[in-house]
Amino acid sequence: MSLFITFEGGEGCGKSAQSRALYKKLMQLSIPVVLTHEPGGTPLGDEISRRLKWAKSPDISPMTELLLFNASRAQLVDGVIKPNLAKGEVVILDRYADSTTAYQGYGRGLDLEIVKKVNKAATQGVKPDLTVLLDMPSEEGLGRKKARKRDRFEKEILAFHQKVRQGYLKLAADEPQRWLVIDASQSKAKVAEVIWQRVSKLLPQQEVEK
Ligand SMILES: Nc1ncnc2c1ncn2[C@@H]1O[C@H](COP(=O)(O)OP(=O)(O)OP(=O)(O)O)[C@@H](O)[C@H]1O
Ligand SMILES: [Mg+2]
Questions:
Q1: What is the distance in A from the centroid of ligand 2 to the CA of 205?
Q2: Which of 6, 77, 85, 97 could join 2 via S-S bond, C-beta 3.0 to 4.6 A?
Q3: By alpha-carbon position, which residue is closest to atom 23 of ligand 1?
């Protein structure tokens, strides 16, 4: 039984920590699972990701961002997501198309209809069964990672990150059956527990209880 789960949210909210925790939990239960991330997750995607995050020139236009994130995505959908879902595996993805809607649509202000169309072309309509939104005040998330060097997005002003956060909350409100919104300022263990409560219901019961 295939299952496609994505993690979303602003900077430092715990997407990578929680997607890894869920991956480990499923591995322990011997449930076939793949963990990957965006942008990147394929050799070409990783190259695109580096260009997007660490470009020396700051003037990458919002439309170029939209297309580059989706170029990385298209490669991941064809090379990793579709084949693993077809094998009946669980696919966990640390960021997906909703990140582009939140950052390039709500954050940068690109036309949401255009963002939707380009996302749809890149994803070929492959939608997550569940999207976990780790929601917290932007300044708290950014504060969690001040120690390391900031990429182009992390360097953005607070108002940008707040627009991204509001964008995510709007997406979740528009499609409540797909989204699980969690207060990400709780402990890692508590957040993981809330995620597991939901995910375990989506798995065949004999897999979860063994
Ligand atoms: N619930 C939590 N409570 C406290 N610290 C946390 C929590 N979740 C994650 N962290 C810490 O916050 C930092 C950022 O977490 P993580 O890298 O998982 O976030 P992220 O959403 O993947 O960030 P990014 O936007 O950079 O990808 C890490 O140092 C992590 O250990
Ligand atoms: Mg991360």
A1: 30
A2: 85
A3: 12
Minimal-distance CA residue to ligand 1 atom 9: 14
Distance CA 183, CA 149 (A): 26
Alpha-carbon torsion, ordered 166, 154, 94, 45, to 10 deg: 120
| Residues in a beta bridge with 158 | none
CB 127 within 8 A of CB 175: no
For 9-46, give one letter per residue: b (16+ CB within 10 A) or e: bbbbbbbebbbebbbebbeeeebebbbbbbbbbbeebe
Q: How many residues comprise the chain?
A: 210
Would you state the structure tokens that stand for residue 152, as one six-digit string?
């182009």
Token digits for 119? 């996302």
* Full-model pTM: 0.96
Residue 196 scores a pLDDT above 90: yes
141 to each of 11, 53, 135, 148, how far by Cα in Å?
6, 18, 9, 13
Q: Give the whole-number percent of the chain exceeding pLDDT 70.
A: 98
Q: Is the dihedral angle over the CA atoms 75, 79, 85, 86 positive or is it negative?
A: positive
First-to-final CA distance of the chain? 16
> Which residue segments constitute the domains of the chain, with CATH numbers given?
3-209 (3.40.50.300)
Average pLDDT over every residue of 167-175: 98
Which residue, chain included where needed, has tokens 């995910």?
199
